[in-house]
């Protein structure tokens, strides 16, 4: 392989600029607009993450025709992205994207109502999976399952990439994103229900869910479990009733 056109002598000075000019990390109640992030600062605040991970994607990708795979993956990703971004502003939704067979989003979550709103998106997505599978079945396409992981934590966010290259993104340093990704891998297999949330996430949203469902017993919807890596966590299969009723009555 020939040498890259990479001038390591010049780039050494660029690296030194990066290392020497990153000078502030501010602890804030809420992450600023994306324009507030530069290549010299960072912010630490409460972040909430949701990961929606397609189950057994290896079998899907190896056993189905390419056109069928494309249809299923697009049906899976497009509406989940819509539900993750719907009704949000720049200060709330910090990042949304796709990693392999997983759709994810990261939100600023300074209040318990923010945490509940992330959970509410998970309930909608869980219900959507039922709708999607009915539509797939009608077209003789393979049905699919997903695990939905939820977590919150104080999180450091820094802008990374290369200035003026157009290649940059926020890097999330903390438990929220990593834990949500790992919890999504637990969901919808080995007896674990689809929605899986860290204990801290559950503790910060359950009171509001109880208040919003005063004629029901929301705490009974969850099962507490333990994992050596994550400690205590909660899992459930919660659906949005109005959405579910529409699905059950023919989606007309």
UniProtKB/TrEMBL annotation:
One of its GO terms (biological process) is intracellular signal transduction. It comes from Jeotgalibacillus salarius. This is Adenylate/guanylate cyclase domain-containing protein. Residues 48-184 form the Guanylate cyclase domain. One of its GO terms (molecular function) is adenylate cyclase activity.
